[in-house]
Specification:
Chain A: Keywords: ATP-binding, Nucleotide-binding, Transport. The complex is a heterodimer of chains A (about 300) and B (about 350). Chain A has about 300 residues and is of the alpha/beta class. Chain A contains eleven helices and twelve strands. Chain A starts with a strand and ends with a helix. Chain B has about 350 residues and is α/β, with parallel strands linked by helices. Helix content of chain B is about 35%, strand content about 25%. The chains are: A alpha/beta (about 300), B alpha/beta (about 350).
């Protein structure tokens, strides 16, 4: 299968200075590709750097080091205004908290149309209105909602407005940073179904950042597991769940409770002990199976390889 | 099994400028000794208000317990004075809150916060209480307890803080522990540790737990019985196996169907359409009818009673009425039910032989 790379992340680093001598290495040498039309899931515990990664890719932060190539162009290179504007159209973001990410003083119509105005995508007032109404319908709201303010909506509806705003400029790549964690269970399913539908219809590529592993598996084609600013494992969603290699991935997977009492009675949790690794050698990201990458030392690599085949 | 707590027809309302919000509308359930009852539901379904009412922690006004009884070991908590309630709160019934940062006092040493209840309820001296506090910290798995007892909350991580909250709740060996989303603010690995800790302690002390959560995975892990709440009412109650493998109420189907299981790869999730009703003016009939794909005419007119499915399993849906048509639950629910039906068959066969 020939897959086209849409986003190429090379040795991305994002370090924050927290004092004169202390640096937080939130993202520390990340390398992965996102292919056209896929959903790439990024999981990890709070503080592992997954949100920082998303924000650095879309240039909300300037990278300390490394490249993010979007359609072959590095987004962190200094560009002229026109190029940046074009780039911003291609890449959009959906945020975690639908209460904090919508301006409470703006009407829904203006929130959604902000991108249209900036990029001059609506020639007339009527066209602008029409486009907003279409977008509202696409995300399952109706046109009467355009004249209301964000506080008049529930959490799930607000997240739909956030999605409509992201879609307004016809992006090809959307970064969704925990788009469902602030929502109720029944509403989560609505939003996930909507995201999937939009992906089919508009040929979108997603970077889906979350800590809810069962939802990530459901929505993602490939999944990357992050731990302390580094990717420790990257594989196809099914492969990752069937063949977790890295001990951290194993501990993470074994910690998720599933809505199945029989499974829960037999679930054995594995704990991750970082000291089990051989620290004399710098671990590298190696391919232990087809498209299955694990951060490991040479010795561990041999071990994983054997284990992978045996499964 | 012995009943520790019996809640009869409990209704709680809040008087607001917009009108009376009927947060809890006639709830009935029991908690047996040594069991864990999970209450699940969306935000606004009344699960937290129900348990706050048990502790008499509803601010009055605007809230009030409109009617109903809360029988704890035969005593009606709804009728006790604040003075009498203070003797029960923290001693016989204690509570673990969702956010460990806001439920701990940031200006007080951890040890003093654990000791408070011991000194108040068990009339311990300060030195006795401090010794017990260190023991409790060891019990909940906090390392280096003897030194950390004099530290402040900000010196602990989120998971450790929740362990402290558990230690405070356990200080006086309560008979009933109410845990209101105790792990929602925590990471999965830390969540697993706290759940294991709570189960472990329950085994040791034989206390009962009411566990409030919206995470059905957690419910499957901890609960013996499950009550599903919607719009201020319990719509289905049963053992954990009955709720997960033989659910009867369409709302329970929706909740279970909206969570992806590991084998539901390509089909769409079963999403409940719409949003929960406004409890200032609860709809006539079944509150879930407007969002229910299986709703019948009667659902919009009359509130369904609790129909009996088995001795332990009840559900409030007209679909269980003898004249109701047979409906097919969503595919993912049918898959769940298959295993249950097979098992039930095996059990009856086993009985005969």
């Amino acid at each position: 299968m020939s897959r086209e790379k849409l986003v190429e992340i090379k040795n991305l680093k994002q370090h924050f200075k927290t004092g004169r001598h202390s640096v937080v290495k939130a993202v520390d040498g990340l390398t992965f590709d996102i292919y056209k039309g896929e959903t790439f899931g990024l999981v990890g515990e709070s503080g592992c750097g997954k949100s920082t990664t998303g924000r650095t890719i879309i240039r909300l932060y300037d990278a300390t080091e490394g490249e993010v190539n979007f359609n072959g162009v590095n987004v962190h290179d200094k560009k002229n205004k026109a190029d940046l504007k074009q780039f911003n159209r291609e890449m959009q973001m959906i945020f975690q908290d639908p209460y904090a990410s919508l301006n409470p003083r703006m009407k829904v119509e203006d929130i959604i149309a902000e991108g249209l105005d900036i990029h001059g995508l609506a020639k007339t007032k009527e066209a602008r209105k029409k486009r907003v109404h279409d977008l509202l319908e696409t995300v399952g709201l109706n046109k009467e909602h355009a004249n209301r303010y964000p506080h008049e909506f529930s959490g799930g509806q607000r997240q739909r407005i956030g999605i409509a705003r992201a879609l307004a400029v016809d992006p090809s790549f959307i970064i969704a940073d925990e788009p469902i964690s602030a929502l109720d269970v029944s509403i989560q399913a609505q939003v996930v179904n909507l995201l999937k539908k939009l992906q089919r219809e508009n040929d979108l590529t997603y970077l889906f950042i979350a800590h809810d592993l069962s939802m990530v598996k459901y929505i993602s084609d490939r999944i990357g597991v992050m731990y302390f600013g580094k990717l420790v494992e990257l594989a196809d969603a099914d492969d990752l769940y069937k063949n977790p290699m890295h001990p951290y991935t194993k501990s993470l997977l074994s910690a998720i409770p599933l809505p199945d009492p029989d499974y829960e009675r037999n679930r054995v949790r594995e704990e991750y002990d970082p000291s089990q690794h051989d620290t004399s050698e710098e671990p590298e990201f190696c391919e232990v199976g087809p498209d299955h990458w694990v951060l490991c030392t040479t010795k561990e690599f041999e071990h994983y390889k054997k284990e992978y085949v045996s499964v | 099994m012995e009943k520790l707590l019996q809640v009869n027809n409990l209704s709680v309302s809040f008087d607001t400028y917009g009108g009376e919000v009927q947060a809890v509308r006639g709830v009935n359930f029991d908690v047996h000794k040594g069991e864990t009852l999970a209450i699940v539901g969306e935000s606004g379904s009344g699960k937290s208000v129900t348990t706050k009412a048990l502790m008499r922690l509803i601010p009055q006004p605007p809230g009030r317990i409109k009617e109903g009884e809360i029988l704890f070991e035969g005593k009606d908590l709804a009728k006790l004075s604040e003075k009498q309630m203070e003797k029960i709160r923290g001693k016989d019934i204690s509570m673990i809150f969702q956010d460990p940062m806001t439920s701990l006092n940031p200006t007080m040493k951890i040890g003093n916060q654990i000791m408070e209840g011991l000194i108040k309820h068990q009339k311990m001296s300060r030195s006795q209480a401090k010794k017990r506090a260190v023991e409790l910290m060891e019990l909940v798995g906090l390392p280096d307890a003897a030194n950390r007892v004099d530290q402040y909350p900000h010196q602990f991580s989120g998971g450790q803080r929740q362990r402290v909250v558990v230690a405070i709740a356990l200080a006086c060996n309560p008979k009933l522990l109410i845990a209101d989303e105790p792990t929602t603010a925590l990471d999965v690995t830390i969540q697993a540790q706290i759940l294991e800790l709570m189960k472990d302690i329950q085994k040791k002390t034989d206390s009962s737990i009411i566990f409030i959560t919206h995470d059905l995975g957690v419910v499957a892990n901890v609960a013996d019985r499950v009550a599903v709440m919607y719009a201020g009412k319990i719509v289905e109650i049963g053992t954990v196996d009955e709720i997960f493998y033989n659910p009867k109420h369409p709302y329970t189907w929706g909740l279970l169907g909206s969570m992806p299981s590991l084998d539901s790869a390509d089909e769409d999730l079963y999403a409940i359409p719409g949003t929960p009703p406004d409890l200032i003016a609860p709809p006539k009939g079944d509150a879930f009818a407007a969002r229910n794909d299986y709703a019948m005419k009667i659902d919009f007119e009359q509130q369904p009673p609790m129909f009996k499915v088995s001795d332990t399993h009840y559900a409030a849906t007209w679909l269980l009425h003898e004249h109701a048509p047979d409906v097919e639950p969503p595919a993912s629910i049918q898959r769940r039910m298959q295993g249950f039906a097979q098992e039930a068959e095996l059990n009856t066969k086993g009985d005969r032989s």
